Amino acid sequence: MAELSLPAEPGPIALDPARTALVIIDMQRDFLEPGGFGETLGNDVALLQRAVDPTKTALGSARAAGLLVVHTREGHRPDLADAPPAKLARGAPSRRIGDAGPMGRILVRGEPGHEIVAELAPAPGEPVIDKPGKGAFYETDLDLILRNRGVDTLAVCGVTTEVCVHTTIREANDRGYRCVALGDCCASYFPDFHRVGLEMIKAQGGIFGWVSGSAAFAATLAAARRAA
Length: 228
Ligand code: C5J
Known about the structure:
two-stranded antiparallel sheet; alpha/beta; 6-stranded parallel sheet
C-alpha cells in the first residue's frame, strides 16, 4: 500500500501503513466499568464508553490494512513492588490500588478488572504492553517493539485523553514518532479535559502531533485498499 494522506488538524498527515501502528491505550475494565480503579476515584465511568465504538472501527480498519496493532494496560504486579509508594498513597479513593473490589484487586495484573474490554480484545499476535505508569514508554519494551518493526507513526486511541493518552503521545513525540490522536477514540472523565487535551496536541502547528478521527482513519485505509 502506498503512502496515504489522512485528513487531520492542523493539516493532513502522511501515513505509510507499513510504518504506522495503531496504539490503543488502557481500554481496560478498571477504567471503563463500574467497580474499577476509575470509579474508586469518584469518576463517572460511563463517560468513557463513548470511545469504544469508534475505537472498534479504527481497530477493524487497522487490522484489515495490516497495520501493527498494540494494546496497553496500566497495572501492577500482585506484590505491588512496581507501584511507587507515592502512587499508592495518592488521593482519597474508596479503594486503593491492590485492594479487593468487585472485579478483583484494583489495578493489579491478572485480575478481571485489568483486562481489556471484550469489544476491543487483543487478537493473537498483537503485542500487549503492561505498563506501571501513565506513559506507555516508561519501563516497557514498547519503543523496542516499534523500532524493530520500522514504525515511525502512531495513531493513538484510548483513555484517558489527558492522562495516559497525553503522556504516551508526549513520550512518543520526544522519541521522534509522529503521533495522530484519533479524537473520538479517546475519552476522559472530564469532557473539558478531553477537548482541551486534543487542542493541546494540535496547537502551535502540531506541537505534540495531529488530531483526526475514526471515520477519516477508516475511510483513508479503505480507499487505499480499494486502489491497491
Ligand atoms: C489514569 C489512564 N487516568 N489510563 N490512567 O489514571 O489514563
